[in-house]
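Thread: "does anyone have the structure for this chain?"

Original post by V.I.:
We have the sequence but no experimental structure in hand. Need at least a predicted one for the grant figures.
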Amino acid sequence: MSDSKGGAEHPARPKRADARRNEKTLLDAAAALFVTSGVDAPVRDIAAKAGVGVGTIYRHFPTRADLIIAVYRHQVEACAEAGPTLLATSESPHAALRQWISLFVDFLVTKHGLAAVLHSDDAGFDSLHSYFLDRLVPVCTQLLDAAAEAGEIPGDVEAYQLMRGVGNLCVGADSDPRYDARRLAELLIAGLRQPH
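Reply from O.Q.:
Generated one for you, tokens below.
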């Protein structure tokens, strides 16, 4: 009996791996479209960008809110994982911070519209906001500490304040094509750099 169970379990593993890859592809496609078209981007466009059928999206994410929340969490994780990688591969801690803030701006622009989708579920939004802070403030702190230790920025810059400031710079970025939040965030990070 254990032989037949073992045989039945082995074919299921690749399906789970495929499902994870499909889900990541869907989330990447949705995130990209949310940046350009907002959270109301048609599901058929997301499916086309991901190279899957519309039914596949609904199998993974039965409602638009499910999809948006999953994109939000997926992007928080991508931002969190990018910090240490950028720190290890960039020419300097300040360069890593600059690149990470650029990713953070992409994330902030993508999440516009989330509050409207979750308007009836304040507890759900609070939970996501806590998740966002718990995952990203420590990463930003690590980048700031490294840049301060390298003498590139002052040592008194707090991650939460910087992230909040960048967030404020992103307000309105989705509704005014003349407004470039990324450029302003770049100026803010450049302004932190100490002269040598």
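V.I.: this helps a lot. DSSP finds nine helices and no strands in the chain.
O.Q.: and Residues 86 and 96 are 5 Å apart (CA to CA).
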